Amino acid sequence: MIVMKFGGTSVQDAKAIDRVAHIVQGRLADRPLVVVSAMAKVTDSLLAMGKAAGSGDRKTALKMARALRERHYDTAGELLGTALFTEFHGDLGADFEDLDELLRGIGAVGEITPRTYDYVASFGEVLSSKIVAAAFVARELPGAHVDSRQCLLTDNSYTRAVPQVEETSERLRRRVQPLVDAGKVPVMGGFIGSNAAGITTTIGRGGSDFSAAIFGAALNAQRIEIWTDVDGMMTTDPRLCPDARRIKTISFDEAAELAYFGAKVLHPATVLPAIQKNIPVYVLNSQNPTCEGTKITARAPRTRNIFKAIAAKKRITIIDVAAPRMLLAHGFLKAIFDAFDRHGVVVDVVSTSEVSVSLTVDSNEAIPELAADLAKLADVKYEGRKAIVCLVGENLRDTPGIAAKVFGILEDMKIRMISQGASEINLTFVIEEDDAAEVVRRLHQAFFAEADPEVFG
Ligand code: ADP
Ligand code: ASP
Ligand code: MG
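# magnesium ion complex -> structure
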């Protein structure tokens, strides 16, 4: 069997879902399990509704919910035709009644918790997976909707819940494998799960890719296909740099670094389950399905180019912790990292001197609280509007003079932190956010103007 995951733009309207049905039809012999995201922009809009209701603005929240209802009804109506849509209408309607009731409840309390945010956000994938399954049936594809919340068990960390892989795999083998064996095409929402108490959770933004990989690993898929709106993993974000080239094959390690440092095309955790079972992952374009896309696999061919790709991650804050009185004091780093741990804040890049440590974190984190805690240990400063740039490639291991080349190209730029060596395959540095686009374009021009045709499409 295989897993085929379709992202938001791939299910954004009736035309897109119709394309999905055709793509899946062409793969029936491979016995696909289909995972879908919410329709494009729906998760953002659900979270905005939750926020509006939480601030007491029930009217706006319900108005947005009405627009969402219409969009889903229109899409389903177009896909299903009158008779089937009439049959299906009640099911969708019940979900929208639940959503309205939830928003009214949040509005009445005037507060929204992470737990409630997750419940609100889950409607996106619940609705899209039902519509896609119904559209399959209408096209004589044997689609069978499965509620992912009954399969994906997570812990209780609402909004970024951690999947409990063993129990999830067990449930998938019990509930989903028999459907595949019977020739059905299970259709499941990504991103959503539930905890041991049965309360809905989500596994973090962009998490449908991760869901697909967990499902694929549990069912020993031959491959996991991530269908999106670009031709594959590219040498850099094509939105930043229109010259970006498709990478034909990339290693799990390279892909993981890129995803972690900002290549939004793949959720950073996606490759973990694939690595464990050595399952190849393909990134493919649902708007250009004949393109070969990118194959992510244990071993990728060496290229004549030094790098495979450049990623950039914006909205970064640098935290500087300086402790002049604690020169060389052992235990200082531990105390710093303990503080990050207590606040559940993830560190991306670290650099140290004898008396100070600089760390980067995502600007969405609870930084003032963390800084107040760190201030008990040392002098703390933090500064937002930074970006991480990350150059990735297996050739970094044994090519001399790379840093000179990279920073030579950026000689007039303010480089705030540099890190190389931790993984042997990336060179990472931190710059001003406003410089990110220019830096990426310059580096791309320098390192990819001539791209090895064996490796780049
Ligand atoms: P989906 O909704 O299918 O999950 P996403 O929006 O999450 O799609 O990811 C696809 C987007 O990722 C692309 O449209 C592209 O702008 C962006 N992106 C960022 N870096 C890269 C990269 N290196 N290669 C391809 N796409 C990238
Ligand atoms: N719909 C979710 C999001 O927008 C999950 C995903 O698309 O992967 O974050
Ligand atoms: Mg995505």
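# post-check
The longest helix spans residues 58-109.
The first strand starts at residue 2 and ends at 6.
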